[in-house]
Amino acid sequence: MSQKQVNFLDEVRRRRNFAIISHPDAGKTTLTEKLLLYGGAIRLAGSVKSRRAQKHAVSDWMEIEKQRGISVTSSVLQFGYDGYCVNILDTPGHQDFSEDTYRTLMAADSAVMVIDCAKGVEAQTKKLFQVCKMRGIPIFTFVNKLDRAGKDPFELMEEIENVLGIRSYPMNWPIGTDGNFKGIYNRDKSQVELFHGGNHGQNVVKSTVGDASDEKFKGLLGTEMYEQLQEEIELLDTAGDEFDLEKIAKGELTPMFFGSAMTNFGVQPFLESFLKLTKPPTPRVSNAGEVDPESKNFTGFVFKIQANMNPAHRDRLAFIRICSGEFVKSMEVNHVRHNKKVKLSQPQQFLAQERAVVERAYPGDIIGIHDPGIFKIGDTLCEDDSKIQYEGIPVFSPEHFAKIYAKDSMKRKHFIKGITQLAEEGAIQVYKELNIGTEEIIVGVVGALQFEVLEYRLKNEYNVNILMQQLPFKHVRWIEMDGFDSDRFKGTTDTLIVNDEDDKPVILFQNEWSIQRVLDRNEGAVLKEISARSF
Ligand code: GDP
Fold it and tell me: Which residues line ligand 1 (CB under 6 A)?
């Protein structure tokens, strides 16, 4: 094997790529920050608030983020730790932008689910968990905020099983709860690790580590806490699940960790164990079978498009997940959908919040490529002429609908351009009413806040003011039926049949109850919640 080949394989094998998911406020941002701190990507963690300010400086392009103090878009962060090269796919915290999170999960090899120990499994966690489950990727659980009062750890394990339907395997166990969090017991090594220092989470914490049977811990913890720990360990060992790496890899068992992202207690043991338990990028399914990440042919797919990140440049970035081979700056690749060669110039990578031009990148990495308007979400790129295509990214059902049109009809061209670009980004879904001109467009979004973003961006990026009329629909179903004829199809008075962007018939409903009625009235009709079309 040549030295070049050895280097390439080393680069692939040290890659770890994951997304962090959580309900807002569980501590995703704080944990991300602390992982970066341990990775040496930022020397001083700084308060979450200052990191927020930093985050906004980066995503300055959208005032809404600043005004509302929420992160609308996800970014990618890379850092090194102990020889590993870690890619964290950051996802928007607000539930109204969960569609973006869904797509980001398509580019992730595993997920870390952050749970607030006092709140347990919350609504948004549940939704995002389902997407991870659908993909069959490993899911790790980080129970956060152990420095505060919370639910009993056994109760949390039960809750995860009851609400999410997945069994958990605690990799470590908290010592001292309810505001008295002292450390963890590492089950793999049978060691106790007590944390101290860290200057309220500003710095890396120090720890005292030793065998759990060491009597010194009785002194350090006090007899009561020490004995309680012994009992709990015994209970875990006798009544808990077996450790099973295969189940973990398939997302059927979640390794569970306890800690406090705020004080840094438990962050390092989590990171180290996580890196050992996860694998480098694994083969990915394409229409020509699985593609080995270690194969020489560079391949990747677009999972996210973002326009106008920098208003001064009016740029548009396509985020590409590299699946195999080596990426070299300015390489020429096949754009499979267009059947055309494209040059990947100005590639960018996101190193702890700073964009940098990247010379080389490897499977598991995410790069942002300047997009002159040729990419769509789901597009595959490959270096050789194999023309393979990766599985599509599903289109999720919108839950809010509105009719929109340009206030000034002279701005129509800009209006259409803006709508088309935002639809290509996946920020909105567009529907057309049957037998009506294109003056009005119906848009669907997954989260209501996306309407605000739409209005804002059309005004600021395309100079178009719009009028918007919210529609009472809540559900959309794609109609699949032999010989479908919109005139003969029997809806109900509160439904509307429209066409999607590919002129496929869809029906909008105000309530679930009508869905069944329409099914009853139209023999042979199938109503699909997720479009057969994917990006
Ligand atoms: P996100 O919405 O999931 O990204 O959550 P953030 O990281 O922004 O955290 C939400 C709030 O919880 C902030 O006020 C944090 O300071 C606080 N927080 C995060 N982690 C911890 C923790 O481990 N302990 C405590 N007590 N608070 C935390």
Answer: 22, 24-30, 48, 93, 144-145, 147-148, 260-262
